[in-house]
Amino acid sequence: MFRRKNRGWQVMEGQPLTELDKKILHYQNKGHLVPDRSLIKTPEQIEGIRKSGVINTGVLDLVEKEIRPGMSTEDIDKLVYDYTVSHGAIPAPLNFEGFPKSVCTSVNEVVCHGIPNKNEILKEGDIINVDVSTILNGYYSDASRMFMIGEVSPEKQKLVEVTKECLQIGMEAAKPFGFVGDIGYAIQQHAEKNNFSVVRDLCGHGVGLEFHEKPDIPHFGKKGTGMLLVPGMVFTIEPMINMGTWRVFIDDDDDWTVITEDELPSAQWEHTFLMTETGLEILTY
Questions:
Q1: What is the pTM of this model?
Q2: How far apart are CA 81 and CA 135, in angstroms?
Q3: pLDDT for 184-214, tens place per residue?
């Protein structure tokens, strides 16, 4: 997808500098990467994204209620499609750059972008990430949850729990006028402390008016690096944490499915967030 090059913070011609202008220009003049105005959502846009997020959360609530051993990932896709369209919305993944389904279903060693299949049957001991994205009246939201199917191994359970903790820790690290790198640093520290690894090849992203916007949100990195976080920005945090190596490959059979290189399990949790004056507001669950 084409993304317009970031132009930095442009002062509105003929308008006096606001306190926000002054603050962002201070960081820009010190050499930091700052958002351009297109990444700061208006109150109307935020409300549209928030309403999209309500439907997105409803989809995941339905999946959580219905998911069980013996269910195919194709069954999950039908649940997602039917719920979404019945609420006047569109599943964002459907036909996005050729993706054939309404949801990503990623089981065990699949990191992300798993394609639902009638022959893929969930069984006791599986873990699965269900990644749902919704378009409502042109506004996008995006979230995913992990589900443990029946009794899972202690190792898989720990992976799922630590990954959820990584999302929470990343959220707490994101502060207004902090930096994207603060998020990745906090997530990486927690994952590696628990002897897990952080996928490097995929990341969170801006969202709201398009499926994927700037900035990219890596889940590893250094404090004080990356784009400045400014109130009004909307983005996802979606750590992908692996039991073994962080390295991954894309399945040649479909050019979508991302799998751990060592084929050990992976987990992911995701929310869409609004940056406010006091911290992050969760727009999807």
A1: 0.94
A2: 12
A3: 999 999 999 999 999 999 999 999 999 999 9
